[in-house]
From TrEMBL:
The chain crosses the membrane at residues 21-43, 49-65, 74-93, 99-117, 124-143, 149-168, 469-487, 518-540, 546-566. It comes from Streptomyces daliensis. This is FUSC family protein. Residues 436-558 form the Integral membrane bound transporter domain. It is found in: Membrane. It comes from the Bacteria. The lineage of its organism: Bacteria, Bacillati, Actinomycetota, Actinomycetes, Kitasatosporales. Pfam families: FUSC-like, FUSC_2.
Amino acid sequence: MPWLRAIKETARSGLTIERASLTPLIALRGAVGVAVVIGLALALGSAQLAVSSAFGAFASGVATFQRSWRPRPVLALAAAAGLAASTFLGYLLAPWPPAFVVLLAVWAFAAGMAWGVGPTSGVVAALTIAVMLVTVTLPTTVLGALAHAGLIAVGGVVQATLIVLFPVRPWGERRDTLADALAGVADYARRLRHDPMASFDPEPLMEARSAAAVTPRQARRRPRQLGGYRALAERFRPVLASLADPIVGGAQLVGPERDRVRALLGAAATVLDATARAIRRGERVRIPEEALEVLQVPETGPVLTGPARKAAMRLIALTDDAVDAAQEPVEITRSIPILPRATFHTVRKEVHGPPGWPGDVTDETPFQEAIEAAEAAEAAQEERTRRRVRRPRHLHRPTLAALVPVALRTFRREFRWSSPICRHALRLAVVTAAGYLLGQALPPEHGYWVALTAVMVLRPDFSRTYERGVARFAGTLVGVALAGAVMGLAHPGAYVSAALAVASIGAMYLLMGTGYAITSACTGAYVVFLLGIAGSLWSQTVLERIWLTAVGGLLAMLSYAVFPAWETPLLRDRLADWLDANGRYAIAVLDCFARPAERAPRQVREALLDARAARLEWEQTAARAGAEPVRHRGRLSRRSANDAQSALVTMGRVTMLLEPHLPERDAKPSEGAADYAAALGPAVTAAAEAVRENRAVDWAPVHEALSRWWARADEPPPVDLRTADLLTDALDDLADAVNPR
């Protein structure tokens, strides 16, 4: 899009105020941490010391509000350590301006590279630059520098201590994330009742997986409810989709079997919603009896057959597992245990068939033997469950110390000219040094605000940088105007100014999720009140803050325009990566039919995770590219990109429909599946390269393999053949979308 339109769209997005869940107790705790540090500094030291130390508690508190699954005390302590180190080094080199500028540039480059580890690391690293710019303007000796650095570190220690002493809903974010995943699957089940082709957003499941990774210490303390449901939510989705789909393996769109499918989907959604509610609140699961009645093999009425019956039986088993996985009391209105009753009807149908079926017999001996075998199997399963409880398995998250080698590998991987992270680091280093020199050349006392604003605005992509630039200026204008009016009318003293600063920072912590404009307004007011503690003239502070913030924001935005890292040229690469990942996922599933004795469910699972990660990369790149004022030769038009995305979503969905129908290890190998998978692999690899190079995609080998499979297939065609047919249609749609016209 044109530059003017791009700036207009990013400005509108930056000024948008979003609805967010407020956490007043957590915000109050963070504000108390800042108040404790300021109060101690005022009581035991000076106003200048209070101003300096407040930034440590403020920045450490900001670190604890970042989106991260690490313990909040660890984030506060890590931020405090980085703040203290940057402050001390800044004080050491402040008397020699050239050396200090070099330090700023090197530190800013390292902070920019920290984005390769993750957004939280990038934000916290940027805060260390900001504190270095602010605190070193206060004159001191080397011993004074040590004292300032130590006091800033104390701010982080205070925040960490308050988190430990006054925990607010421990494990709450992980509970919410897991509950959102279960609720998302429940909503999917309800939508499938009316739309068998309903779409599904896998992001909640991906967030739940990220939240499930814990350190060994966290694994010992994690509530039991958080240990078993995520995998069940993952297993529910393909079973629900397969049960609802009328083409691959589900019931027809009309008739009694479809009514039975709708009832099963609704009951499964009820169970999932009840489980999500229990996990979110940390209480026992309460499941309506009506839902449990539906989730049994019926003795009368419509009975599913074929692949739909297999999917229904798996859904019933998964529901039983979902109730048992919490290892907490399950409150229902019946006295008969869930699993034995389900087993009773299942075994009766397997041995005799439902009452009234042809072949129903009166001899109960085989039936009783089957029941005893099922009870023995159930007891063995319970014993295995108890062993898993004693020796829990979990996704591993490295500790901070173990993260250092990971960060170094990331640094080496991203240290190249074409890397967006490296370009961001170079941009940040140059802008920080240039902003500091510009601020020193300007007459205002607080010229460092130019570099500080540029550091806080710059991000690795165009849209966020320009959104934050506009939001920073607008929010600062409002915040300093309101704070200046209060200072001008009330003329508060040091302690009242400190209280107002704490109130401002508490409001920022509370409203941080609503948008960067509000965050900037609260931060602007905080700075005005904080400098009022040291006796700075409010009128001078307000005017300087406004126009220096504007200069810093413009410098950051101009730097991105001069030295960009556009996402638009990466669209074809991201699309090719997604196609390649989807192809490997499809081949992993088809291999289970081709070689059932060698089936590896873990291989299928890993391929699915890779496909989801590739889809997320594509969606993020496409969203950022849509806001960029740039054209690229060989680019995808918006319509082509949307059509290609739809085709790859269909490809992943069709493959997922086949998962509930994977054969047992003793099943007969499928020659057609083996032939089709052998043709699909090289074709996908060649197609991915063609997409990258803007050449035509050719699926002729895949069509030939599919034709051979249809020629040797029996009637009715097997479920894997019907899936391969739909998969080929999706590949053709992709070719229509990306082939040059």
